[in-house]
Amino acid sequence: MSASFASALSAARDAAATQHYPQGTLYVVATPIGNLADITLRALHVLQLADVIACEDTRHTQSLLRAYGIDKSGAQLLAVHQHNEAEAAGNVVDRLRQGLRVAYVSDAGTPGVSDPGARLASAVAAAGLRCLPLPGASSVTTALSVAGAVAHGPDAGGFLFAGFLPTRGAERTAAVQRLGDEPRCVVLLEAPHRIEELARALAVLGERPVTLARELTKQFEEISTHPAQALSAWLDGNPQRARGEFVVLLHPLPPAAADDDAQGRRVLQLLLPELPLKTAVRIAADITGNARNALYPLALELKREMDEDEDADGAADEGGDASHSR
């Protein structure tokens, strides 16, 4: 532990110790995403106070605690990760019922968003016990805060968090096509060994601006915005650019593009009940001027919705007939 964190622990006690920290409570604690100094004073105090610390990786969390000068035995650390979260949640609930304070941390950032923690929080709430959030670092909000990618106004709609896209080629391509029609800012996460594959997949979005934010809060942090079709060239320009964890932001569609999407949807809704899908797409492209490859995934989505509605109506009719026969 450095001397600076020794003073931080003292400051944490002074700032946070007068607050009430109920027993039998799960404390969901955000931890730094790279820079150790981004820990909050309240997080430091709760990590000292906790009887048990549930964590995504016990070795990683033990190293983090030691960096801050917090001493916890191995018996006080409980592994709760994506492979055992449902089972481990029961263990946490048992300890909370004993009146223990349990803190949960993921490897970095705010738990339960992309990292594990959501199932644990749900299980604790279902048991009638309390979850108390301690806000802090998040790669999602960190990237959003500097990218200028969230539109404002009464009709802006905020942003969509999509997380990691499918790893299989066909599924990833289909996901990108769907997101290409999303008018809001879209937030993606990606690992370094797949960022070049994602960049190639996003190239179909053409001129749509995309911000790549890598190694956030770390020494080699880099935040850069380019047209989607130029991402691969930018990554290829320097091998270092493909290193580190990535937050990828698809900027909002221009208002005209969003209007075009709405027009295409309206035209397809009229044509699909009367025509084969490919014919409906071709005619919709002629009417609206939109590209067929942009209308096709929208047509598939609408067709699925129409088929589901028909199936639901058929089931309701059968149920009504059966009730009448009785």
TrEMBL record:
<dbReference type="Pfam" id="PF00590">
    <property type="entry name" value="TP_methylase"/>
</dbReference>
<dbReference type="InterPro" id="IPR008189">
    <property type="entry name" value="rRNA_ssu_MeTfrase_I"/>
</dbReference>
<feature type="compositionally biased region" description="Acidic residues">
    <location>
        <begin position="307"/>
        <end position="320"/>
    </location>
</feature>
<dbReference type="GO" id="GO:0070677">
    <property type="term" value="F:rRNA (cytosine-2'-O-)-methyltransferase activity"/>
</dbReference>
<dbReference type="InterPro" id="IPR035996">
    <property type="entry name" value="4pyrrol_Methylase_sf"/>
</dbReference>
<keyword id="KW-0489">Methyltransferase</keyword>
<dbReference type="InterPro" id="IPR018063">
    <property type="entry name" value="SAM_MeTrfase_RsmI_CS"/>
</dbReference>
<dbReference type="InterPro" id="IPR053910">
    <property type="entry name" value="RsmI_HTH"/>
</dbReference>
<feature type="domain" description="RsmI HTH">
    <location>
        <begin position="259"/>
        <end position="303"/>
    </location>
</feature>
<dbReference type="InterPro" id="IPR000878">
    <property type="entry name" value="4pyrrol_Mease"/>
</dbReference>
<keyword id="KW-0949">S-adenosyl-L-methionine</keyword>
<protein>
    <recommendedName>
        <fullName>Ribosomal RNA small subunit methyltransferase I</fullName>
        <ecNumber>2.1.1.198</ecNumber>
    </recommendedName>
</protein>
<comment type="function">
    <text>Catalyzes the 2'-O-methylation of the ribose of cytidine 1402 (C1402) in 16S rRNA.</text>
</comment>
<feature type="region of interest" description="Disordered">
    <location>
        <begin position="306"/>
        <end position="326"/>
    </location>
</feature>
<keyword id="KW-0963">Cytoplasm</keyword>
<dbReference type="InterPro" id="IPR014777">
    <property type="entry name" value="4pyrrole_Mease_sub1"/>
</dbReference>
<dbReference type="InterPro" id="IPR014776">
    <property type="entry name" value="4pyrrole_Mease_sub2"/>
</dbReference>
<feature type="domain" description="Tetrapyrrole methylase">
    <location>
        <begin position="25"/>
        <end position="229"/>
    </location>
</feature>
<dbReference type="Pfam" id="PF23016">
    <property type="entry name" value="RsmI_C"/>
</dbReference>
<keyword id="KW-0808">Transferase</keyword>
<comment type="similarity">
    <text>Belongs to the methyltransferase superfamily. RsmI family.</text>
</comment>
<keyword id="KW-0698">rRNA processing</keyword>
<dbReference type="GO" id="GO:0005737">
    <property type="term" value="C:cytoplasm"/>
</dbReference>
